[in-house]
Protein 1
Amino acid sequence: MTGGPVLWAAVAWAVFLGAHLALNGRWWLWLLPSLLPPPLFAAVPAALLVLAWVTGEVAAGAVAGAALLIGARQCGLVPGALVRRPARALVRRPARPPEEGTVRLVSWNTQHWCQSTDPGPFYAFLRELDADVYLLQEYHHDVFDGTYRLIDDERRLRATFPGHEAVIARGLITLSRLPVAATVETAARRTLRVDLEMPGGRGVLTTFNVHIPVQLRLISPLRPAFYRAVRTRAGDRAREYAGLARDVAGCPHPALIAGDFNTTAAIGDARHIARLGADAVPLTGRLCPTSWQPRPGMRWWRLDWVLTTPGARVHSYRFRDPRGLSDHSVQEVTVSLTGPDHASRTPADTRLRPHLRHHS
């Protein structure tokens, strides 16, 4: 094969992209390459296309252009956000009254529940969010060996949120001003389902508070334990997604599914997310929405998602700065039901499960 360096680079990227599309979500080890920042799947071929135009390498331009088109779904860009910007009204006019029947919900990975931050500012920030419903992940502390230690901070929760009911399980918390109609067992082991009575008797909204396991342990990749952990967690993730799909499919109410999925558009598991419900992200108004890391210069990944099933409508959606209290941005949405929820609840739906702690 002959050609200049731009052609060689374009072919190398095309080979990588082909392997990515073939192996992503099908081979556990490909979880590692899929952790690349998704915008690279657009930026790299676009840069090669420009270089090919500058150098006049037609073949390189053709290869780079094809790679750009084929890899477009992996880049995490949301063109629809350019024409759907209602979330900006939340920022510019925060005093605007909410639409009748809407509730304000936030979802946030708390990064091990103020394990490394002062609890005072942490709880003050939670209060400042002033949400009707909180879906909070990582209500635990990291032991730094791949495991976590559950914690008990209920007394402070009661004092900080006297008007909220709380359901706690599996390192997850759902706090709600709305009456809790039911807590329901889930097949997914890292998900907390809570059914909530919407204002004005408009029906029941089911919330799925989700935390999909992260792909790897932060240990040296030269150690066999690193790859054992990746393989084990790939299996854990597959079971979580399969369980969550069954949970959502079996839910008789409109649902909002939100949390830390530890999945970007470039990870094969994004296919599972797309089947769960409608992605609300175009409402952010961001062409390239990101939620992790929130630090300047590191905002390349979107790991947090908000999805809805028919009957639930998201009116606004934005990411909020966590002010250094977590490595995840806060997801904030307003949501309502589009019509009455006539689905009846079975006795199993309304029974509190033994492993779910609930207080008001």
Note: DSSP finds ten helices and 15 strands in the chain.
Protein 2
Amino acid sequence: MTEKALRLGTRRSKLALAQSGQVADAVRRVTGRPVELVEITTHGDVSREHLTQIGGTGVFVTALRDALVSGEVDFAVHSLKDLPTTQPDELVLAAVPVREDPRDVIVARDALKFTDLPRGARIGTGAPRRMAQLNAYARAHGLDIETVPIRGNVDTRIGFVRDGELDAVVLAAAGLNRIGRIDEVTDFLSVDTVLPAPGQGALAIECTAAAADLVAALGELDDPFTRAAVTAERSLLAALEAGCSAPVGALADHLADGQIVKEMRLRGVVGTTDGTRTVQLSTTGPVPQTHDQAMALGRELATEMLNQGAAGLMGERAQ
């Protein structure tokens, strides 16, 4: 008798299906069980409003979590950067697999780099975080750009450039990698120019806390380095009391001495969307060995940022 298929809850977008398909393959390998994708429509997928207007935090997640709790699906795959920072008691992040490239990228007309865009170039992005940092960089380096709020999937966003409506759009490298379109990138933005969203490039595999056997099996896919990094980043975001649509960038990376990872560096930035004011700080410490240590690293940096006026740069602080 064949074992019952595990039901994997996923959003319906091309990117979500691509990353869920990759996770399904990995879960089949570690469990030996068949996995079927169950497509779920979320509020973020059907609403045409900008994410900041419909709540930002959780708009892509709630329907998937409801399906988990109701038993409609056995586990779900999320883009980690979409997850609210508070974890419901009945659900558990069973695995955070190895992270993809966390950087933001530009897809521009005429294969242009960011710094080669013409004066007055119109750059599309839906993220206040990207607007804040691009405008701050432009201001510091004498570039003249206009950031334009946009929504839509990868096809829609790149279409704005192909149609001549925009000079460039900003996207996540990880998403383009996962759908096989990384060759359309015209410029990779250094994390020194634009810090990514907390958790960007990482996936979260979630299931109910009660499914102990499944939690253990999915745990095989967990990457401790990635988990420590994203935990620190999300702890920073939570301590700033900011939602995932707030203009906060964060990245934890590992500092290695040869092959041996010695320390973790956490960088954070918050800024007004026009780029006139930013607070950017970093801290370095031993690689966290526990969840609590990773959380502490994020809180510590958030405290320093708040002491330097970060709260006043986030507009209304999302609860």
Note: Confidence is low (pLDDT under 50) at residues 50-55.
Protein 3
Amino acid sequence: MPTAIAVTSADLVLPAPDRHTPSAAVLHPPERLDLEQALAETAALLDGNGHLLVVVPSWLPAPVVRRLHTVRAILETDRIALLGIDLPPLATALLVRQLRQLTVCDFSPGIIASAARLLSHYIHAGALLGSVAKLDRVPVDFKAHARSWVSGAQFAVLANPTPHLVKLGPGAVLPPGPGFATHLSFARGQLPGDWVAAELAPAWQVQGVLENPLPADSPAWWGTPKLIEFAAAIPDIAVLYQLVASVRREECRWCGLELIGDRCGFCATPIPALSRT
């Protein structure tokens, strides 16, 4: 049976890159559904799919996270994986799309679940910001904070894979880009300009540029509505397949599912370092 991907917000479901890539299910928050309805919603997804992978972003409110864990516990199923993701909103949406792409490949649910951590390292995620005064996701020194009060100041910030911050201006060195083929997605907040497409895209040598709507959680994540969020990711399913397939597979000693990396995506059991050598 197929493996389904679920998210907690509709704006994390980007358009499919091809007609083969399935969409993702959107789970409703506690204020929209009571517990009984949430159980029915999740049970229906399990009835139509073999396993369910739920992407759980780090910015989710605590009641939403508790609801997800409660539903999984009450259903008493080992077919639900709650995948903790620590990426900005637009990058999270790109990762969700990559996981959706992998579900049409011949990977087992455990491999797809543990691939989320692997693929996260290959997404370059950042934003062009009009202020870093309230940015707490990336280290900001005192000088950058002070410059935020200068009218017209703009900052290029990279949050993943390695934090990087630079004030734009003459001689500014742009954040380092990926050393492999990617497409660049961006989403506009309340910051005008075409810097991402006109300057960042050529500097990063991306193979394509696409604009998407700004996720609702982006202004809070970046600490300001004056932003243009961007993320570069691998778009090609053949490359994604080869990347995941090239990693050594293990068997989880607790739940028995296949996995890659150092931790099971379903039960979070770590793999001893000795078995990975």
Note: The CA atoms of residues 263 and 270 lie 4 Å apart.
Protein 4
Amino acid sequence: MTAKALILAASAATVIGSQAVAQESWTMTTTWPSSLELIETDKHFVELANKLTAGELTIEFFEGGALVPAGEVFGAVESGTVQAGADWPGYWAGRDAAFSPLATTPSLFNAVDYVNWIQQWGGAELYNEVYGNFGMVYLPYGVTNNESGFRTNEPIVNLEDLQGKRLRLSGLEQGKLLERLGGNQVSMAGGEIYQALERGVIDGAEFSTPNVDWSGGFQQVTDYWATPGWHQSASVFGVMINKASWDALSPETQEKLQIAADATLLWSLAFTEKRATEAYAKFDEAVEINRYDDETLEEVQKMANEVIVETACENPNSAKVYLSMVEYLEDYKQWRDASAPFNLGRTPNGPDVEALRECAG
């Protein structure tokens, strides 16, 4: 072999070797079992991410419970047991109350508000700041609009009907708000709701959007549905990534994962709204649907604002997140209201921004 050939062969081996080193393999799990349609957003992200990072990163995805219980996904990512875990941030509010508004809000943000805020009003930085305190990077990649509301075997049409009801409800502020309205929060995993309703352990439950609720079979064990779901006006989902695993990627691969997350975020909104519309039609034939009147919703909004300020003022991180959200609403309000009704939803009569500013320091 000539000297030139030896040099070329060595160069080729170096390139191949560097490619082998650059190839990363991740294990990713989720909080959702395959029986719940929420997992479709996770699958969409993984499929797109693997396509965009082909040759650089391979993500092997496992449904919820296959590797660790749903409640342990956070710890598994934090410790590096798995490199990535899909979640709904509100599940971790016990670790930091700021995770709650990063997941959902009572009677405040709609899905487009979350997208606007995440993409252009500083929301993405706050996700990474809060998750960063636990050694993680966070990519929001899923958003759903208003959740269904309570599913019960006795109709709920006003606040009086909530009195004394034991209702499965997820969320920190949501639980406080329900108690203020006269009900009692019962916490349980999504997979336990069906049997709890069937056996009468609880009087009713909320879980997710109509399509997800239909996949959970709640129409089989309840006769009534109270709308709208004031407790969660929208929800965000995403992927927790172990910081060391993220830092091991090249900037180019990191950018491709961000692109996959952004694309999935938009896809998830249209996908879930289409699926929710289809599920609503099926629920309309299976159960009786009742809607709160405007006066009731105004009262709920007033109490929700009070609960938001109280909760935020108990935790500086939570106050910082809510302040950013309400500042976005105030900033967007002028143009949104000027373009009504051809706009992107309502401007809620939300909490006192000055009170939040004071609590956020």
Note: Residues 1-21 have pLDDT under 50 and may be disordered.
